[in-house]
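We read letters as residues; the integers encode the fold. Take this protein.
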Amino acid sequence: MAFSKFTSKDASNSEHYNWGNASHGWHLVNSGTLSIIQEKMPSGTSENRHYHHNAQQFFFILQGIATFEIDNEIYEVHAGQGFHILTKKKHRILNKTNNTLEFLVISEPKSHGDRIDL
């Protein structure tokens, strides 16, 4: 879905989906070459370990603390920080805290259809 430069996007007017164990996502931009999604993960949740053949991703943490597992190494990323994941890197995001984790995930090209679960 393309949007006009005059259209503001947020969770209230974007396509919503559920994923994982009670997590939520909103497609802010969903074009053939770019995906920007706002996501929320409840306390104690994680996604499945996976990788992308073509997509690189950038996660920007809006609220909370994210834990990333990348090729068996652990990284902690706080609100106001970003984290870049290159193509073909095995990864997952976890919320190990007692608070909701909220972030943007930017994929180029879009990662839907390019995900290989491990």
